[in-house]
Amino acid sequence: MASPNTRTRLKGIVTLRVQRGGADLADRMSAVPTDPNAYSLVGAATKITVTETRSDNTQRYELTGDYQAFEPAETYPGKVSYEVALDRTDLYDANLLEAFGMDVGSNIVKQLKPLTIFVEQPVPTEDDGVTPLSIDGTEFKARTLIIPGCWLNGYTAEYNIDDADQKYVLSITMVARTVISV
Description:
With 182 residues, the protein is mainly beta. It has helices spanning 23-27, 96-99; strands at 15-20, 40-44, 47-54, 58-62, 71-76, 80-89, 115-121, 134-135, 138-139, 143-159, 168-176, 180-181. It is built from two helices and twelve strands.
């Protein structure tokens, strides 16, 4: 019996690129480039998590006609916030923050400009490495996320000598302005 085709694990790797932005990039959505060549290559992420949350809904209250109890007049959604968590194995040529083009060591308070992160998931291929993967005649497409206005919120370096591979993993969390799917 052949194993079933699933869409859970596809051969491919998420490539990270970054651009250090200034006020124009932070303020204008039209200034966010969609060309991957406009970004510096950071490498591959061991793990990336993009979280989008909305704060609690808020209710606006009004007095009723007979001035008894306040009753909710309407509700409206709260503000959306974005957080990006990213793990990358240290590659010795540059740690994660250096790869982002930041000369901050491990002191995130020295970040003076927001980052724009470009996350690119290429089209998965068949075992030959060339032919695009398809299931039932439908080819997969590349996925791209552009995350502008990223500010470092946390930085963790982890080295565990008990692990078999003893890799040195750098983790960061960032708050972002938005997430754009291209």
